Amino acid sequence: MTAAQGIRITPRVRWGIVAYLVYLAVFYGVWIANRIDYTHIGDNAETLWKWYVAPTLAGAVVISIIVSVYGWWRPALFDDRKRMPAWVWVFPAVLVFTTIANLLLGDSSRFTPTMWLLLTAGSLLVGFNEELLTRGQLIVALRSRFGELGVWFFSTLLFGLLHLPNTLFGTGPVGVSQVFITFIIGSALYLLRRVSGTLIVAMALHALWDFSTFAANSGLIVFVGLPVAAAAMIVTIVLTRKESRTVTKPIVA
């Protein structure tokens, strides 16, 4: 089956943005309804449910419905573009090692069995939602207009901006840095989609990253994970710039 088969709505940038805004409205609507205090997410089982699982569960339902209506599941989950060179795997491999090491070396003694269950559910949902939203359906939409360099930049920028409202829910101005951090991490996740040929692997790494950063803080995420992701971003720029110079056919004629 080709990427064009099963598509109900022809990919356009505007439809990707519509899905993005609807997801934001639902996710942050649940946060507002549950009176979120971002700095206390994960303090106990109640905050994990109200501020982590509940909004991501609602978001998963909404983005799944939208992608189904669009008929974009296959091009969102599987990449028909030529894969990145195999050596690119080194970046996600180091990130996986870093997140696991952080879990083993960091202190997570405060977590109860119920909290572990909720953290797992929430992290899986975050990985699914945010990847499908930004490096799934948005990439499908952006490819209708931009070369791959632009696709990487705008999808990753919107991934970073997805976290900007956190400044209004407890992080304050310091939360602006989260936009830049997630832009860097998002570049590594984009690279993983392109080297693996599927968004599913990026969903898994995203979930593992969030699970690890919530559960423990050994310093490895900041001092190893972020520099590796930054290196991945530079590689992404070089490879997508080269790719954008080559004229390719869009996903949908």
Explain what you see.
There is one protein chain. With 253 residues, this protein is an all-alpha fold. It has one domain. 69% of the residues lie in helices and 0% in strands. The chain contains nine helices and no strands. The chain has helices spanning 13-33, 45-70, 73-77, 90-105, 113-142, 148-161, 176-196, 199-215, 220-244. Helix 1 packs antiparallel against helix 2 (45-70) and helix 2 runs parallel beside helix 5 (113-142). The chain is globular and about 50 Å long. 41% of the residues are buried.
Précis, in short:
This protein is mainly alpha-helical and 253 residues long. The protein is built from 9 helices and no strands.
Query: What is the tally of helical segments?
Result: 9
Biggest beta-sheet profile:
none
Question: Structural class, judged by helices and strands?
Answer: mainly alpha
What's the N-to-C terminus distance? 15 Å
Q: Into which percent range does the helicity of residues fall?
A: 55-70%
Indicate the mean pLDDT.
94
The residue ranges in which pLDDT falls below 50 over 5 or more consecutive positions are 249-253
**Rough shape?**
globular
Multimeric status of the protein: single chain
Supply Rg.
Answer: 18 Å
Q: Count the domains.
A: 1
Order of helices and strands: HHHHHHHHH
Number of strands: 0
Report the β-strand fraction as a percent range. under 5%
